[in-house]
Amino acid sequence: MAFLQFSKNKIIKDNVPPPTEKKQADERKQEHEAPMKVAIKPYLLSCALEVAPFIKGLIGGDIGFYISDLDNYLYVRPGKVKLALDTGDPVKDGSIARRSMLSAAREVARVGKEVYGIPYIGTGYPLINPADKKVIGSLVINTPVEQQEGLTAMAGHMESQINTIAVAVANFSATSQELTATMENLNSNAQGIKEEIKKTDGIVTMIQEISEQTHMLGLNAAIEAARVGDAGRGFNVVAKEIRKLSQDTSRSVKDILLILGEMKHSIMELTNFIDQVTEAAQQQAVSVQYINSSINELSMVSVELKKQSDDLI
Fold it and tell me: Residue 313, SS3?
């Protein structure tokens, strides 16, 4: 009776109807879920910290790996780039970790070698609570890119050298074309000289014939002078001078023919040399075209190499 009276008094005093089974189940569910929601943040970070050594082993020793909550770094494993960070250090404003947490998105930044002696790319990614979509921390990796930068520098140097060679070959091509034109002009002039020498052959032949006729005329005059005796003495003197002139002319004609023959020979050698030089210049022009084609292909390869090396960075 006392227990019933207590229960009755309690019911009357509280003036609250007894809870239904559904309400009691809802209250128990809320009591169970509330602490889990509060514990999701450390649970995600603890999971990240659990797998961090495996991630570090996967990405290798050259790449640094870091985990932070909203305020401090919880996991610090530097790679080739030795950042001035230790576990427990605060996350600074402007850092890649802070930027990724503020933007709630992936952030990438390139840092030159003037900062830590090695150029690297920092990449940050936020840790987001799936329950309330709030950022609770970040994952950060630092990837050194000194080899990629070296490749980019080599590609740029190669491109510069190819451009220099292309300019030199272009100048050489222009010179070869000028040389070919000059040789063709010289060859044309040499052929003209040969034709002029051929014309002098006829003139020399005519002079030689006149010399021979003059010699015959001098002989006839000497014969007539001897036939008339003393009366032809003066005429005999003239006949001797005519024969002497004929002999001098004949010797001069021989000298002229000798000189012209040497000139013909020299011009023939000159024209042969010009032909050889012209042929060589034409072959050079063809070779230059092939070289230009190869240089164009190398230039395209260099540009593509530089583009790919830039994409790596």
Answer: coil
Q: What is the pLDDT of residue 268?
A: 81
Domain range for residue 160? 151-312
Number of structural domains (the chain) is 2
Residues 6+ positions from 148 with CB-CB distance below 8 Å: 309, 312, 313
pLDDT recorded at residue 115:
85
Q: Are 140 and 69 in contact (CB under 8 A)?
A: no
Say whether both 212 and 302 belong to one domain.
yes
Helix (H, G, I), strand (E, B) or coil at 128: strand
Secondary structure of 62-94 in the HEC alphabet?
CCEEEEEECCEEEEEECCCCCCCCCCCCECCCC
Cα–Cα distance for residue pair 169/4, rounded to 1 Å:
115
Which of 250, 226, 48 has the alpha carbon at shortest distance from 137? Answer: 48
> Do 108 and 202 share a domain, yes or no?
no
Instruction: Note the pLDDT of residue 51.
Output: 95
DSSP state of 20: P
3-class state of residue 143 by DSSP: strand
State how far the alpha carbon of 34 is from the alpha carbons of 37, 84, 129, 130, 157, in Å.
5, 39, 15, 15, 63
Examine the domain organization and report whether 125 and 157 are in the same domain.
no
**Does 214 map to a domain?**
yes
Which regions in the chain score pLDDT beneath 50?
A: 1-17, 31-41
| Cα–Cα distance measured from residue 45 to residue 69, given in angstroms and rounded to the nearest whole number | 8
